[in-house]
Amino acid sequence: MACSFIVAFALFAAPAKTHAAEKTYEIGTDVTFPPFEYANDNNKYVGIDMDLLRAIAKNQQFNVDIKPLGFNAAVQSIQSGQTDGMIAGMSVTPERKATFDFSNPYFDSGVVMATSDKNGVTSLNQLKGKKVAVKTGTAGAQYAQSIEKKYGFKTVTFDDSNNMYEDVMIGNSAACFEDNPVMQYAIKQGTKLKIVTKPANKGTYGFAVKKGQNQELLKKFNAGLANIKKSGEYQKIVNKYLNAKKSAVDDHSFMGILKQNKTFLWQGFLQTMWLTIVSIIFATIIGVIFGLFGVIPNKFFQGLSTTFIYVFRGLPLIVLALFIYTGIPTLIGTKIPAFTAGVITLMLDEGAYIAAFVKGGIQSVEKGQMEAARSLGLPFGKSMRKVVLPQGIKLIVPSFINQFIITLKDTSILSVIGIIELTQTGKIIIARNLEGFKVWAMVAIIYLIIITLLTWLSNWGQRRTKL
């Protein structure tokens, strides 16, 4: 029943497939990979990859719908058919060629090691017994893992570049491996690291589509790339970002960052609240249904309730989110928007918890209440509605408000499928200004304010139910 609900909900909510005549392609990208892709002061996605893609699209007369998902989510979205292509500083490797078709190379790069002045590490030979930071899915991570045993270090994986840099700067890791142009850009923007090796594992970046699909898009990309290289526009775009220096007028104080990004943070907050409210409504409906199934004197419905609660409480939220966003589309052949996938994820996860405390709240009412009602000739349904439920609701209400708080916090996990809620907003801002501590402090304060208000509401609800 739950699986049928997922498919029906996805088919209902998913938009119609784009017609080829419209020549609009959905392109996945990273969110924290400057100078190739990042959000500027106006929260528009810019960088070498973004400008190249737009220039090629203009040259070849097609439109692009940029989906800032994050590297891992972008890879999975293209594999499941959620997006038509991907451009995210993606290195062309034999392993990736087995899954993707790549364009002609549009950038040459290599991997470098960067360290902090504090730890004194200047060569690979000094890494024995130490930890090294890498970013998930990158060429830097692959290179580090390929030499891990040779030099005796241990890799620590992060989802974004800023956290990787911070881990080195605070001394948790001795070094990090990053693509050369990305590391150079970060240092120019004020990251207190230094490059200590020459570029290794040299390779190229390519635009990717799912193997055997979207060949027309791939041909257009190659043709447009050749044209903008010939016109000189390609070199202008690359020089614009590789030679960029940190702006002297940027205010990196706490209030300066808040003032500059208040609109973006507000949008992230609204997305978080909207996602939470919609999800908790659906979770309440499905939770109450399965909770009531658990107290109906019917073994089939009781088993259905127990199975639902067991399965969806047992699955990690991140696994459930990725399965729904990337696995279900492969099964049904229809795209599921990230927001819809997020709502379904929270609906099932939080719905299982709501079902558990609805079931427990009803069962906590003394059995004598039901027996007394039945002895007076009331049928089961009316006894439940008139006698048991009013008493059980008093026990359920505080738990429901607490579940709303948990749902609000759980929305942060959905950044893995590219939903730009409050946590993802923080990552995007940090990619631009590299002020991790200050930005995360802002995000934490916003969450704490909301959760404090909801906690007060929960306490008020508990006092009211005791009256």
Automatic annotation (TrEMBL):
Its localization reads: Cell membrane
Query: Keywords, A to Z?
Result: Cell membrane, Membrane, Signal, Transmembrane, Transmembrane helix, Transport
Q: Name one Pfam family in it.
A: SBP_bac_3
Query: From which organism does this entry originate?
Result: Apilactobacillus apisilvae
Query: Would you tell me the protein name for this molecule?
Result: Amino acid ABC transporter substrate-binding protein/permease
Question: Which region is the signal sequence?
Answer: 1-20
> Which top-rank group of organisms is this from?
Bacteria
Membrane-topology annotation of the record = Multi-pass membrane protein
Q: What is the lineage of its organism?
A: Bacteria, Bacillati, Bacillota, Bacilli, Lactobacillales
